[in-house]
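I am writing to request your help with a piece of structural work I have in hand. The matter concerns a single protein, recorded as an amino acid sequence and a row of backbone structure tokens. Could you please explain, in whatever detail you think fit, how the structure tokens follow from the sequence? Thank you for your consideration; the sequence and its tokens are set out here:
>
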Amino acid sequence: MFKTGDTAWGMVGLYREPSHPAFDDEDVELVKAIGAPVAAALRTHVREISPWLGQPSAPGLVIVDRNGRTLSANADAFVWLRELWPESASPCDEPCALEVFDVRSLDRGVPTPLYALASRARAVAEGRERVPARLRLRDRRGRWLVLHASAMSGPGSPGNGTVAIVIEAAKSAEIAPIIIEAYSLTPRERDVLGAIARGGSTAEIAAELFLSPHTVRDYVKTVFEKFGVSSRAELVARLYGEHYSDRLHETMIHVD
């Protein structure tokens, strides 16, 4: 697991073929040594704003069986899948595995995020897990997406481990906690940022957090510096606008 402080930014599973030697202490130390730099790079990547051109897509729906193979999917699902794993999203007449191309060639299958998500959904349905089957990730264009899955049951459903997975653009409120974490704010700076996002004035923030107005201004200045902005409006735009996966004004109706 790649961590900065107490926050995990990624993880890796390493395997070797049975014909190769097992990992030794030197391998373990190597992974430990690269852990912090990799975590820092992943955190920095979250802060980067990727330009996106195109129309927002509607939610996609994928139905997978217990073996991780598609039983059905709507057209929007293929749009999203092509943006996540291009080689996995070609429509096919018969059930096709939702696996990345270079994984298909392995003798032993490696679960993809979709496969793992479906597995968690089954575990939740069976009472083995309590955390909902939900995943946030970025596609190759930098858009934040949310995937959530649930096991299907009841009259008329395929059952037998069948899972429905919904893929959709993440809402700004779902992205904000990750963005805040990526900027390494202290707990008190997060409190101040939250109050700013709610539209609180300096006096209101001071009263809410039991701070002096001067101290609040110091915190606001520090938050501005960490986000690289110079005003509250710019800060809120950076937090809720520039990192938002769909264009904010795409569906707005303008009235003269």
